[in-house]
Amino acid sequence: MGSCFSDVRGGQQAVGGTRQGPIGGGGGGGNNGGHNDAVDHFFRARGQPALFSQIELSLSASKLRDLDIMSKSDPMAVVYLRKTDGKLEELGRTEVISNSLDPAWIEKISLAYQFETVQHLIFHVYDVDTKYHNLPVKTLKLKDQDFLGEASCVLSEIVTKQSRSLTLSLHNKNLQVGLRNLGTLTIHAEESVASRTAVEITFRCSHLENKDIFSKSDPFLRISRVVESGGSLPICKTEVINNNLNPTWRPLCLSMQQFGSKENPLVIECFDFNTSGNHALIGKLQKSIADLEKLHKERNGANFTITASHHGHEKVLRSQLFVDQFLEKQQYSFLDYISSGFELNFMVAVDFTASNGNPRNPDSLHYMDPSGRYNPYQQAIMEVGEVIQFYDSDRRFTAWGFGGRTYDGTVSHCFNLNGSQDGYEVEGVEGIMAAYAGALHNVSLAGPTLFGQVINRAAQVAGHSLSHNHSKYYVLLIITDGVLTDQQETIDALVRASDLPLSILIVGVGGADFTQMEKLDADNGIRLESSTGRVATRDIVQFVPMREVHRGSISVVQALLEELPGQFLTYMRARDIKPRAQMPL
Amino acid sequence: MANTHNRSLELEVTVISGEDLRINDRPIKNNAFVTVKADSGGSLSSLQDSTKPDVQSESYPYWDEKLHVDLPAGSRYVVVEVCRRSSAAVDKLVGTAWIPVSDFVGDYTPENYLHFLSYRLRDAQGQRNGIVNISVRVITSSYKGTAASSSSSSSPSVPKFGIPVDREKTGGTVTGMPVWYPNQWKS
What we know:
The complex is a heterodimer of chains A (about 575) and B (about 190).
Chain A: H1 8-12, H2 37-45, E1 53-62, E2 75-82, E3 88-93, E4 109-113, E5 120-127, E6 146-154, H3 155-159, E7 165-169, E8 184-191, E9 197-206, E10 219-226, E11 232-237, E12 252-255, H4 256-259, E13 265-272, E14 280-288, H5 289-298, E15 301-307, E16 314-330, H6 334-339, E17 343-351, H7 376-388, E18 396-402, E19 404-405, E20 411-412, E21 415-416, E22 425-427, H8 428-442, E23 444-445, H9 452-465, E24 472-480, H10 487-497, E25 502-508, H11 515-518, E26 534-535, E27 541-545, H12 556-560, H13 564-574
Parallel strand pairs in A: 17-18, 17-24, 24-25, 25-27
Antiparallel strand pairs in A: 1-4, 1-8, 2-3, 2-5, 5-6, 7-8, 9-12, 9-16, 10-11, 10-13, 13-14, 15-16, 18-21, 18-22, 19-20, 19-23
Chain B: E1 8-19, E2 22-23, E3 26-27, E4 32-38, E5 48-50, E6 62-71, E7 77-84, E8 92-100, E9 115-122, E10 128-142
Antiparallel strand pairs in B: 1-6, 1-10, 2-3, 4-5, 4-7, 7-8, 9-10
């Protein structure tokens, strides 16, 4: 990924902490108010999500089976996450409630909500024998307890409901329908307060040291979070102010998800910007958010220190950091919008160009293996569709193909995958798969690879939806094997679409050289520019080649989805669109 | 082609910020300000408006100032000029952006949609010189006739809401064809 400051323009812009305007508000052009590549890469490489929401599950049950002779059952619930390999990972247990067939447990189970994966939850309810009642719940051996019932669901099913609750019927482990009613389990999900808290801070420095020879320093701040292993991890940086030893930067907005807690120590470093990328450290200090709040209240400054070259001692500098403004605020989270009725609409566009190879040929990227193994197109459709389907209430998805020769003999660069004339929608992910399979029979592969029409069409659909309401956000997945032939036209279409409620995910399949495609994904900070001089308002494109090897438990394609909640929030917050049910923040 | 609409429009333009502004290839020191006007010339006060100079910021100024500009019927562009106010001498032009009206009228969006737009600035020699970020919203439209379509591809008219309209619908939506400038800039 390289240094976060590797290009001058991009490097001069604030990253990670800018106000949530579509243009970053603080000179942070293509940065989406969120993402620092080095940070994401660090987390993803360790199998951890970069930004996630902490959820707490509260459980209750009713009409449980009565297994005890003298009194009622003493139930306890255990929550598991089913991993991709089928193994169950225990997330937590409730306490034991004595003598109740309708328990409402107090102990909550925490887990991280990850938008980009399908999180399968399994719940087991046990009757705990009296002799174990005074032992810590963690130490109980489950095989010694009496099994009362099992239920399962996907976390997205719970959090997308307005009530954030789901009631499930309990059943036997082998899904056999028992003679007796085993009762029901109700799960309620709540986001922790941290997911809505953010602080807006205006930093100022005085008496910064001059590191430049012919002019003054060009300072910027980088804020990092101290991690347990002892290192620190950058979470954001300010913009660069040219030629100023007493700068005031634009306000930084940090969400609690970024800094953890108000007591977490943060390392604040002040650098002098160098176009070479080799920024000179002016000084650093360590403060928590709570410390910064105190600095603001007392109107005090904190001195920077620097490691003296000879002794390794920390030398206290005259340079100081001030907190001119400190504002704590609550902002609506992604789940606040979703549970109030906002939806993600899924659209797919499949590449039907000849470079894929004849579908009847086992070497073709479109080959449908009789054993049922998915080809790359099916894989991408499934991996994205199975996550997004929970966020679309009517599960009607748009499916297009491009670059193929349809029934009338002409090559179309945006045709309905279901072969119909007027309707481009299908039902469910299975509907997309069926339309795709059908199209392979009816459409012959042609070319060239052009994205412009598909993007314009998607933009049209997204734009038209705005006439009705502002609660639909569109996600277009383009799956392609080849390199674009209409680079400028595609960029033009993307720039026009960048101001609409639309995000575009591009998956490259097969072995082509996709370097040119990576330019569309403006992660390096360079905003896309159209042929008419218009510049993209937001970075709405993510690109990944499917063959990229990915460490961690999520697939390469699902990693694409990580940025969606952030892009959704940037769009909504910039326009001050609030969730429908106006719950107090 | 730019949409030649037959009605006058009132625009609320928020000039947000600028990026990497230079004069003679050196970042400007301060006092950048922006003038927004209709392309149909004239310096009628209702046809142009300016921000205050940003005294503090250098080449990445931040204004966040709302301007009101009237767009006479037939205007094809909104002209955004970034200048630097000089106390000693004449204001210096940093760069200009020509914004096709079709970028915010008659595209896929409802009429009063808040558009966040960004444009490349070109200096007097036509060289690229920074970016300007604005938002545009059409406030009212007094209707003087039907919206003419100058595009070859047409699609059903976008359903409009909030404005009682009494006109015949002709297919008039421009589907985003690239706009041709009077002079084609070289990059």
